[in-house]
Amino acid sequence: MSSFLYRVGRFAARRRWTVIVLWIAVVVGASTLAGVLGNHLQSSFTVPGTQAQSALDALEQRFPQISGASAKVVVAAPSGEQISTSENLIVTACEDIAALDDVVAVTCPYAMAASGATAASDGAASQVSASGEMAFISVQLSVASTDIPDTLVASVTQATEPMADAGLTVAVSGLAASSSSGVDWTELAGMGVAYIVLAITFGSLIAAGIPLVTAALGVGLAASAITIVAALVPVSSTAPVLATMLGLAVGIDYALLITSRHRDNLRQGMDPAESVAVAIATAGTAVVFAGMTVMIALVGLGVAGIPFLTVMGLGAAGAVLTALLVAVTLLPAILSLLGRRLIPRGRMARRGSEPARTARWVRIVTRQPLLTAIGVTALLAVVAIPASGLRLTLPDAGYDPPGTEARVAYDLLDEGFGPGFNGPLLVTADISRTLQIEQALDALQDAFSGVPGITAVSQAFPNEALDMAVVTITPDSSPSSEQTAQLVQTLRDRAATFEAANGFTYEVTGQTALAIDISDRLGAAMLPFAIVVVGLSLVLLTIMFRSIAVPITATFGYLLTVGAGLGIATVVFEWGWGASLLGVGKVGPVISFMPILVMAVLFGLAMDYHVFLVSRMRERFVDAGDARAAVLDGFSASARVITAAALIMFSVFFSFVPGGNAIIQPIALALAVGVLIDAFVVRMTLIPALMALLGARAWWLPRWLEKALPDADIEGEAVRRMLDQREWREADSETRGQGIHAHEATFGDSAPLTVDVPSSGVLLVHGPEAAAVCAGLSGRIPDVAGDLAIGGRLIPFEREPLSRVSILVPALPTPTDASTLVEHVRRVVRLDGRSGDHRERARRAIEIWGDLSAGPGVLDEFDVPMSVLDEHQRWTLDAAAALASAAEVTVLDMRRRPDQPGMLDRILRAASPSTTIVIALTETAVEPAVSLASPGRPVRVIRADPAADVPRSQHATDEVVV
């Protein structure tokens, strides 16, 4: 991973203008397309598979007249006056509204004449409050709530203006969608705080602006993408807000980490372009894996099986992915463009280590690690206790910002008609199997009379086909109350008894019942979600840190974090503590998907800090092997960046709380508080204590698992090794620019080898690991450690270019196939990119083959199948083809060949003078082979032993120089 990111960062740094222009074009293009398509976000929620949703779907098909949206026009008289004095105004408004397009029916509180599709009526006295100070007009539409045209809203407003002009309070609910996707101005304050924190961290106004610019571009692209997708599939209006909130936070954090590492590199005197590539390879690797954990958690929301929540998770994951792409491509281009202007100046340049207070803190928390761990765990467990009482619901107009028209209407209905009036239950019944329609309607209506918790039951009425009946029930409790949820369950439990008595059954639906079903579905999904997401992330963390304890401690800390975050959210939004101070729009149950969403996002963010912190500890442990020193040094190296990242993320999340909409507020507060708790209490207090308590055991991994897991290289060890190798090569570039040069290099399980073979020289290899050495020197295996340069190429980093200019002939020859000898030679001979000479090279290969075979068995005819050749003939044929190719490096394993010294003599005479040759020999053939070697070629001899057979302090070196 780090090597790949190094190449990406180096490309972006070198082609900075191309990358910048391309990104700007993509962002502008996506924004333009989103503007053309328009806003198609939806504020409604559907949950397939629930009783409420299936009943709503059936209602839409069989009773379309009432399947559309419904609205209420609430009219209140001035204090102390009766609404009946404005009867004429109200009746006129009823008739004007009934005449509008898309209006199916209007139920007026007073007698009205026929208008539009609405017949004349005597009025519904139940729509006048008991005090007589308030009334409402009920409007049934033919369109869904998501399809209400702006013209209809304007027409209803125009029809109600005379009542407002007369001094009545008029408010309409159910027409305009709730404003849940807007971005409040307080987000600018959050960005301002982030800029201040960055400026203090970097000590540079220019450097502080870079993360904000890249994060804003990433969020702009993600928001445009969500808008584009919303034109094709249903997308919740909350999705862009969540994506913006999360995209800003992680985008700034990721840019902060990479920019901080880049400035550290510049401080050490590294070239700006190289510094950018190294920063992307090291800090960028940690960023990629941290982002992957966030995306796993967000995509895991699909486990709940709720479409709108899945889309929200995918949208937020897309924002994180965009932030990652920006961080590893656009950011290095911008950093490269600024060049040396980002070199720290003054105090920042002189800062060689973290402040003493950081070191003091980590020493304090690790002095008595067990006591620290117990104390932190107990504290967070207590804070998490209120979370057990968190209530869930789906938002209705009562969650709109105070003062909005829908919220005013909601509050008026609650005041004048009771809390249950804002959340009526709709009961649908399939009466297609009965011919006694009147009796069925009476039975359906009477079934709910006298049931505790019900205030009113409407008259049951059928559809035109007389195969479905509907009745409306008004509870005496609010839509989000536990009493209403219990009432829904009670009514559903009675359905079986009702069916046995009447021959048909009913279903309870409506938005209130749907909200209850969604809450139940989400509650049931939390455990599977936790198992899937945490399980996958544990695997990812095990790969990252190559440890069992580190992922477990990370998950333990996360559980404490999410519990504490939800506990504080409960205290504020359920208990109301500090609600007015924070500008909370609604004290009461929070949106149903809040806990599972907070779990997903906090898991990813917690793993961010864990990666940033523990990767530095691992780096120190790998370098020195001292577990306690690794905790202290790793903490000190990362504490400043984690502190800045946490403060930035807190400011971004918290900016969505004051004055924000009631759906996002609890989510934002839980995330903001959770970030602070996770960064400062868990990651910077509990985790150092646990790591110090575990010592070297924190890095233990079973040997079988270590071999099975891929090496993630999260701290760019491969890149640091490449840079070290580059310095080693440049220290003697004239010599190490050609030939084979190894310093304590290992190939697979071989012991370290040190050897220098000049260009056109010969290396003779013997010993148990000779085959692995041959494969490594020809660029055929990646498992090469130590310093190794072949033809100036650093191995294993430039292994692929080496494999293109090298040939390996293994001990066992090429298996036979249906090709002829000449076809085989022409296929395997190396052309080196030159056209037109393959026939000559094939002819030369056959000549060399004759010299190498040198005895009975050489064929006079070459147009024969390869199958007639024995093993020795096939091997010498492959060797001849290799020699005829005149490759830069030719590696021949001839340990199975007879007369190896004589074969070596013939090989050296046939080989091109510019070719460096590696020969694997048996033990007994080495000395005779050396004596027969041509004095015109420098010869080195080396023994390849298994690492287990040789003490680590010893390594094989040159034995013979001819």
Description:
The chain is an alpha/beta fold and 962 residues long. The chain folds into four domains: 2-37 and 183-349 and 369-387 and 518-699, no CATH class; 51-173, Alpha-Beta Plaits; 425-509, Alpha-Beta Plaits, CATH 3.30.70; 717-949, P-loop containing nucleotide triphosphate hydrolases (Rossmann fold). The chain contains 33 helices and 20 strands. Strands 6, 7, 8, 9 and 10 form a five-stranded antiparallel sheet that branches. A five-stranded parallel sheet has the order 17-18-19-14-20, with helices on both faces. A hairpin with a 5-residue loop joins strand 12 and strand 13. Helix 9 runs antiparallel to helix 10 (307-338), helix 12 crosses helix 22 and helix 21 runs antiparallel to helix 22. The longest helix has 35 residues, at 511-545. The chain is elongated, with a radius of gyration of 38 Å. The two termini are 42 Å apart.
